[in-house]
Structure formats: C-alpha cells, structure tokens
Amino acid sequence: MKTLVDIDEGLLKEAMTLAEAPTKKETIRQALRELIRARQRQTLKAMVGTGIVAMTLPELRCARRRHTVR
Predict the structure, then answer these.
(1) Residue 33 and residue 25: Cα distance in Å, rounded?
(2) What is the CA radius of gyration of the chain?
(3) Contact (CB, 8 A) for 26 and 19
(4) Alpha-carbon gap, residue 31 to 37, rounded angstroms
C-alpha cells in the first residue's frame, strides 16, 4: 500500500542508522513492528495478576518460543 506521509528527515536518518536498515521502507517496517511488540508487551504486563492470563512465567516463555518458531 502506498501512503504519503511527512516524516521528520532527522528522525528518519537516525532510525535508519540505529536499525541498520538499507532503505526508508525497511526502517519504517521495523519501527512499526517494534511499536506493535512494545505495546503488546505493555498490555501483557498490565494483565499480570488480574487472572486474565492464567499462565506461569515458564509457560508464557514456552508459548513465546512456539510462536516465534513459526
């Protein structure tokens, strides 16, 4: 999908350097993935102790390994 977005050039250059990404497109892709993962982690952390997630830490780690293998 093509989208026209005005992005701060300095931020983009810094992100490209940190991500070691060869293109702007790859930099943005990596940034979006990282944002999603970070927010998902925050959501899971907020659920700890609520009873919503009834898994132990070792069970969560095992589930994560199964998820990343795919």
Answers:
(1) 12
(2) 17
(3) yes
(4) 10
pLDDT tens string for the chain (70 positions)?
899 999 999 999 999 999 999 999 999 999 999 999 999 889 888 877 777 767 788 887 888 887 665 4
Rounded distance, CA 60 to CA 4, Å?
Answer: 39
CA distance 38 to 43: 9
Tokens of 48: 């700890």
pTM for the model stands at: 0.67
CA 65 to chain centre: 16
